[in-house]
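Example with several molecule types.
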Amino acid sequence: MATIVLKLGDDISTDVIYPGRYMATVLPSETPQFAFADMTQFNAKLKAKEIPAGSIVAAGKNFGCGSSREQAASALCGHGLTIIAEDFARIFLQNSINLGLHLVICPGFAASEGEEIELAKETVVNKSSGVSFPILQLPRARQAIIDAGGLIPYTRQRLLASTHRAP
Amino acid sequence: MGMTIVEKILARAAGRDTVKAGDVVEPRVDLAMSHENGALVINQFLEVFKDTGREPVPWDPSKIAIIFDHRVPAESPKTASNQKKIRAFVARHAITKFHDIRGDVGGICHQILPENGYVRPGFVVVGTDSHTTSHGALGAFAFGIGATEMASVWTLGIAVNVEVPETIRVNVTGRFPRFVGPKDLILHLIGVISAQGANFKVIEFYGETITRMSTSGRLVLCNMSVEAGATSGIVPADEETLRYLRDEAGVKEKLVPVTADSDAHYVRVVDIDVSSLEPQIACPHTVDNVKPVGQVAGTKVHQVVIGSCTNGRLDDLEIAAGIVRGKKVAGGTRMLVFPASGRIYQKALAEGLIADFMAAGAVVMNPGCGPCLGIHEGALGDNETALSTTNRNFKGRMGNPQSEVYLCSPAVAAASALTGEITDPRKGTGE
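Resulting structure tokens for the full complex:
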């Protein structure tokens, strides 16, 4: 069981997730303080550690659109959040897989803030409404990166497996 | 079945005869671009090599480009220290495609790459910036990636596990009316297909209007393709591409355009006739909230911004200067002009455009990303409105979530600076 701690609409941009003025902060250990920085109440709860790891941010379509800034993924990752959205923008999806942010693609997902959900491998069940929503699996090309624990270990494996690198 | 341009480029780069949309390939990268976020790339790159016993040396420093543009000159000790860290890395690995904060060769990455001939038709270009899509204007496949993925590219020289995208074909016909141009076309297209309409797809641009369009205009189309979610925009390389690269970018090597097969498969075809297109405005807070200028004319504007990787090129400045020349920016409205590169700034100086802007009351800033993403200059006050030739109007984009940003062409921006409200340049220039 996990709680929906934030409900958002469509086209949530990386400017909303991680405002551009904090982009000089780059290290994954430092970015979480600026997650949703312009949503001051939610940001304050995150910083006060009032949001337990595993909590859910639910959104509509095209979550993470806009800038390629990886801070958007690392900031959310640092709080242990899971993002359930109807779909994700390409670069944000890839950044999240690369860094290990838990994304769930769930077309038609409907829930409100404060509701409890149960996250299984192939479905999300809204415990309040009792409605079950099928999960779309991530593109198969990405699975190897997830299995390796992220793109850094994956690349390290590839580096060590190669006697020489691409010319 | 025949191949689209992106299929052909990825087949070549992956060493295969053919690929089709949905295939997973690992293309060799021809150019890998970063800006100040190179500081994070370096961090992740060193992390990859940690405890491997291997020397952390990039696969091919000649294919790495680093351009300082997002925070120039540095706005904070933190940024200055990031830039310093990057300079040291650049020197250690002899990265030659490095553009520091300079008036002669500096500027915005998406102008510096084309004007120096770093991008060629058929290239696979990756950049740690979402507007890397711009470089499809030269017939390349160019897409944005995150910093960790760039660290992987620096390590392996390939982009790992790339799914070959499907392609949307956009056919454009007709001649632009006066004061209507590429920016209006791309805003109109985004309005039609939506901010998600090209997610995970490539947009190829065709038609007589595109054939006649300068590389500068094509860069506008491909730059903003990402605002429809596209992985890349691509204009097939043609005579104009070769002219630009030879005559303006000084490229001497043989260039080989990549074209789509006549029986290539497109998931969607969009036809647009620009001959009756009106100036377009993207209204707050999404880029696909697009309306003809007439529907928002009269909206009070506190700040007008002309510049950026979208519309900071010489032809943009010429259009804007032509409108404000001999006139005055309205009281209560600030007009900020950011040429896209030092080279463009110098040409604008030589043509007298900078003098025109300053005499009208505009402030001409140094080349760079400027106020576009709300980092360190040109911030908006609470409840203020900006009208900008940049590419994004998301809530908080220019640094203040209590402000609004409208997007438009240089002609609309300049005409509106004179009146202090959103103005149709076909009516408002006093001619």
